Amino acid sequence: MKVVGVDLGGTEIKIGLVDKENGIEKKISLPTEVSKGTEKVVQNISEGISSISKGVKIDGIGIGSPGSIDRDEGVVRFAPNFPEWKNFELSKAIGSIVNLPVFVENDANSFALGEWYFGHATGLTDFVCITLGTGIGGGVVSHGILITGKDGIGTELGHVIIEPDGPLCGCGNRGCAESIASASSVARTARELIKRFPESLVLKTAGGIENIQSKHVFAAAQQGDYMAQMIVEKAVDVLARLIGGCIHIFNPEKIIIGGGMSKAGDALILPLRKRVEAYIMVSFRNTYTIHASELVENAGILGAASSAIYALRGD
Ligand SMILES: [Zn+2]
């Protein structure tokens, strides 16, 4: 089976020709051009799909989109990067041009499906994926089925409340996992604390308060920086509570961490493995493993492609 995966970002569209057995065979990227309006974005996506699949028999198109997605109808309810898109029928708009089945999936579910067909979860029936980026996304496969819930919006793991008196979350609640342990929240906490720890290595490695990203915090923590270690410890503790909850609910074989912050690798994963043990019942010990995703910069394309492979599966 060959499909085209479209990783739809606010500034860049990455498109890949993906074979179910061989992975990415070809990829291109082009500007999204959101400011030029919906028609232009749709045109860019369609032209990218046509150019990459020229002369190849394609079974379907998968689009991974941020925001709230009606996956059954292929409708983007709303997406922060695309202010014009309110209940936009994305799959219909693209499908009518390229004349192929088009499937739209939110980026966290796409990521989980990508791990299933091309990553750590190959061949598994039960696993949990958590993406750590601007927010925290969740994708769960249980008994070989992607869990979506009644309205298709389930497994919002980032908005599980871990600290009721914690920071205000973008969703309006306080202390969601996302408000403390997403890549953006880790960077924001560092920018706030730097006033109290002006000598922190985080500031030196980032080269200025505004430049601070989660990767600077993890790098400084590795070098023994007190403030950075404190922030990492907090984020790890919050993630461990979330993962502990997932282990009790889903009894997964693997937990796979993706998104920008997963690039911290062992600096994140090793303390996380240790901390999770503090939050699970003894009977769950050694029933799971925790990994950082290895799909890295291809995760978006492979995830989008996998949502088409999953939708078209009949095998
Ligand atoms: Zn929230």
Describe it.
The protein is an alpha/beta fold and 315 residues long. The chain is built from ten helices and 13 strands. The strands form three sheets. Strands 3-2-1-4-8 form a five-stranded mixed sheet, sandwiched between helices. Helix 9 links the parallel strand 12 and strand 13. Helix 5 packs antiparallel against helix 8, helix 7 packs across helix 8 and helix 8 crosses helix 9. It binds zinc ion (ZN). The site of zinc ion has 6 residues, from loops.
Q: What is the beta-strand fraction?
A: 15-25%
Q: SSE string, helix = H, strand = E?
A: EEEHEEEEHEHEEEHHHHHEHEH
Whole-number total of structural domains: 2
CATH fold descriptor of the largest domain = Nucleotidyltransferase, domain 5
How are the elements arranged and paired?
Blueprint: E1 2-8, E2 12-19, E3 23-31, H1 38-52, E4 60-65, E5 68-70, E6 75-78, E7 86-88, H2 90-98, E8 102-106, H3 107-118, E9 127-132, E10 136-142, E11 145-146, H4 177-181, H5 183-193, H6 201-206, H7 214-222, H8 226-250, E12 254-258, H9 266-276, E13 289-292, H10 299-312
Parallel strand pairs: 1-4, 4-8, 9-12, 12-13
Antiparallel strand pairs: 1-2, 2-3, 5-6, 6-7, 9-10, 10-11
Helix pairs in contact: 1-2, 3-10, 5-7, 5-8, 7-8, 8-9
Bound molecules: zinc ion (ZN).
The site of zinc ion has 6 residues, from loops.
